[in-house]
Amino acid sequence: MHAKCRYYLSSGLACCALPLGIGTYLIINKWVSGDWFQFLVYQKENWHNSFGFFAQNLATFFNLVREAEFFVAVGTWLPTLMLFFFCLAELALCMRRLPQAYILYGLVNLFISYSPS
User: Fold this and answer.
1) Domain of 112?
2) Domain presence at residue 26
3) Quick one: average pLDDT of 65-89?
């Protein structure tokens, strides 16, 4: 019984890690700036970031690889583009070995990571 309790406790703590991290980040934003989501304003004002469609961003990365200076293209945009497809292939190869929840989390994380424009 003791091992079972330890298993559920560790699983519960693991499930709480992500919400606690996000919650802590939002609380710090509220404390520092007075707004829970002020970081979104800073990202839009300073870096013109907003949430977009990941496929449009991939097309933009592809165009930047072709049009940017060589070192910027090879050092920034080409790895960004290649890593998307590498991660997608890795998730596809791991589908039989990992729980479906992990694969789904990986896909959602990948698409969300490539959605800010």
Assistant:
1) 51-117
2) no
3) 90
